[in-house]
Design brief:
There is one protein chain. This protein has 649 residues and is an alpha+beta fold. The protein is built from 14 helices and 32 strands. Strands 16-17-18-19-20-26-25-22-21 form a 9-stranded antiparallel sheet, with no helix packed on it. Strand 23 and strand 24 (477-478) form a beta hairpin. Helix 3 crosses helix 4. It is globular, with a radius of gyration of 24 Å. Bound molecules: MU-OXO-diiron and calcium ion (3 copies). One calcium ion binds next to strand 10. This is Alkaline phosphatase PhoX.
């Protein structure tokens, strides 16, 4: 941090100087060393694609484990680089040709058993699933400082299909959803595996526990399997999410394998130091587009685990264990995930001074009263559930009907509590609620948020810090504008915030206070200069490290530059300011910031560089990209320099 401050003009100049270089740009005095890349062998698999969360676990002064999430496939870049990174041909062209007359999608199960397309799709989907999931790699510190890989017995891969061919590699389930997975009579689809799960994918953010395990969040599972479920928690048919290629993403990867949608969208716990121990999905933490996990483990208190759902209008959650923690470092604490309750945040607007607001955690339990927030929000809930619930005959009307006062009143007469929406019994009913946590949270009046992407605990204050990546909305939902407003009161603010949240003490159990601590946007818009905060890390001084994730198609590329890494001091003369530390290559997002034990090394993942135009763009692609910038900004683009890959490091 410069000692003499950092004025806005200098900061703007800095954007212009470094934002568009196609490499990782660091401040003077820092250097970057490459640790691992896609395709590197890891145990019986390989280092996967689009790495996100990173977790450092020390095994001593010079040895460590790094756990890495692999989120999704950017199909163009994946296809372009596959032969070099992984080796061997992919049947990509054959699949594209076959899908073209079918609108780019096909339900693999609907193909005749002897149709060669069936095997071809499966081969392509299997290759893609092998690049998703979670990996653990061993590291060794070199005498001159940098950490390097040293493949060893802890190296491990959990992929989207780990347990498909090898049942010993399946994942387990804790909590009430296991009862749903085991039940025999169900409204919908059964994969026949009971409470075992074939693998994990869409692994985005994550976190660590004080007892040395890693939590990996399954986020956008709706891309690969059907998200909607029946009122008893069972899945809809895998055909509802057919295998698809739209020119950019490979979707419906679960379809060729008949994966059950209700088994994805969970928080996964694994112990990097015990590769022989199966990873588990903890259903008490709920099923939604999981991101953002932060663990609060204090002796004598329940385990509290915060998490978020990264969809427009997704919610902020916390799990509270029934049992109390005795020793935060005790590996037996993993058992605390097996009994507790899931709660979801309802924020009250700030007072007239706009400062601190209050809020309340609402337990997701069968007796929770159904309390729709507003017509738009409620309509969304109604439409989805009306199709799926056994009561659907009485709820046929569409969104507009639900939005009317009469329809809302009728709905509330039918559904007074969550128990009316999820009519099962006992643990199976609780499991159905947890499986359908997003819609259940909508029903009880949780606040639709501005896409919570990551959470960390401030080590000094104990407060929760939350990155909300963007306000506004989509067909998915809408952030509540009473809470999420721009720096000048704008009703929708696309550049995001960082919020602080403090739980009140036992005497006001379930109440919390919140305040915005940093707002995105350009300085002259009232923001701190960054846009779309995503992953967070906090060092032991309490300084926040944050990486951004703006759409690679964003019209504001000229304004905010490539995605970047920022430093936000929370104390001292620069508290309340934000400093750009590093910028990534073109079309990437930087993800997974984490420190080694001495905080002398920052680990960063560079996710999806060259997602749209390739990491080694042709002259035409460079030209197209440059024109896009000029077209949208009207500004010169002489600074746009493409540095050949290989010189980056
Ligand atoms: Fe995978 Fe919400 O970022
Ligand atoms: Ca991402
Ligand atoms: Ca993220
Ligand atoms: Ca993101």
């Amino acid at each position: 941090v410069p000692s003499d401050g950092f004025d806005a003009a200098e900061q703007r100049h800095r954007y212009a100087r470094i934002e568009l270089e196609d490499r990782l740009v660091l401040p003077d005095g820092f250097r970057a060393d490459l640790v691992a890349v896609w395709g590197d062998p890891v145990a019986d698999g390989r280092f996967g694609f689009n790495n996100d969360h990173l977790s450092f676990l020390s095994l001593g002064a010079d040895r460590a484990l790094l756990t890495v999430n692999f989120e999704y496939i950017s199909a163009r870049a994946w296809r372009q680089g596959y032969a070099e990174a992984v080796g061997g041909p992919l049947p990509f062209d054959a699949v594209i040709d076959a899908l073209a007359p079918r609108g780019g999608r096909v339900d693999a199960a609907s193909l005749a058993a002897d149709d060669p397309l069936r095997a071809t799709i499966r081969q392509l989907a299997e290759a893609a699933m092998a690049d998703l999931g979670v990996g653990v790699i061993e590291l060794e510190r070199q005498p001159d400082g940098p950490w390097r890989r040293r493949p060893g017995r802890f190296d491990r891969r959990i992929t989207g299909l780990s347990g498909w061919r090898d049942p010993a590699q399946r994942l387990g389930t804790t909590g009430p959803a296991a009862a749903v997975f085991r039940r025999r009579e169900r409204l919908g689809y059964d994969d026949g595996l009971g409470d075992a799960i074939i693998g994990s994918f869409a692994n985005c953010a994550g976190g660590e526990t004080p007892w040395g395990t890693v939590l990996s969040a399954e986020e956008n599972m709706q891309s690969q399997v059907a998200e909607a479920v029946h009122a008893d928690g069972s899945s809809v048919s895998p055909a509802a999410r057919p295998f698809a290629y739209d020119g950019q993403r490979l979707d419906g990867l679960g379809n060729p394998f008949g994966l059950a949608g209700n088994k994805y969208g969970w928080m996964v716990e694994l112990d990097p130091r015990r590769p022989e121990r199966t990873a588990v999905k903890h259903s008490w933490l709920g099923r939604f587009r999981h991101e953002a996990v932060a663990v609060k483990a204090v002796a004598g208190q329940p385990l509290v685990v915060y998490s978020g759902c990264d969809r427009h209008g997704g919610h902020l959650y916390r799990f509270v264990s029934d049992a109390l923690i005795r020793d935060p470092a005790d590996p037996a604490n993993s058992e605390l995930f097996s009994a507790g309750r899931l709660e979801v945040a309802r924020f009250d607007p700030p007072g007239p001074d706009g400062g601190e607001g209050r809020g309340r955690w609402l337990p997701l339990e069968p007796t929770a009263p159904v309390a729709p927030l507003g017509p738009g929000h409620f309509a969304r809930f109604g439409v989805e559930q009306a199709v799926l619930l056994p009561h659907s005959d009485r709820l046929k009307p569409g969104a507009e009907a639900f939005a009317s006062d009469a329809a809302v009143a009728a709905y509330r007469r039918l559904f007074a509590t969550l128990a009316d929406l999820y009519p099962g019994e006992g643990e199976e009913r609780m499991g159905a609620i947890l499986i359908d946590a997003h819609l259940a949270a909508c029903a009880i009046g949780a606040t639709p948020c501005a896409r919570p992407e990551d959470t960390v605990i401030d080590p000094l204050s104990g407060d929760l810090l939350i990155a909300f990546t963007a306000g506004g909305g989509s067909d998915d939902g809408r952030a509540d504008p009473a809470i999420f407003r721009g720096p000048k009161g704008q009703a929708t603010w696309p550049y995001g915030w960082i919020m602080g949240l403090a739980d009140d003490g036992a005497e006001k159990a379930g109440a919390f206070r919140w305040r915005m601590v940093a707002t995105g946007g350009a300085p002259w818009q009232g923001g701190l200069g960054f846009a779309n905060p995503d992953n967070l890390a906090v060092d032991r001084l309490g300084t926040l490290w944050m990486v951004t994730d703006r759409s690679t198609k964003s019209a504001d590329l000229d304004l905010f530059g490539n995605n970047s890494c920022w430093v936000l001091p929370s104390r001292g003369p620069h508290a309340g300011e934000a400093f750009c530390f590093a910028t990534g290559p073109m079309e990437c997002e930087l993800t997974g910031p984490c420190f080694d034990a001495s905080e002398s090394t920052l680990f960063l993942a560079v996710q999806h560089p060259g997602e749209d135009h390739g990491t080694r763009p042709s002259a035409e692609a460079r030209e197209a990209q440059a024109h896009r910038l000029v077209d949208r900004s009207g500004r010169a683009f002489e600074q746009l320099r493409w540095v050949p890959q290989g010189s980056n490091w």
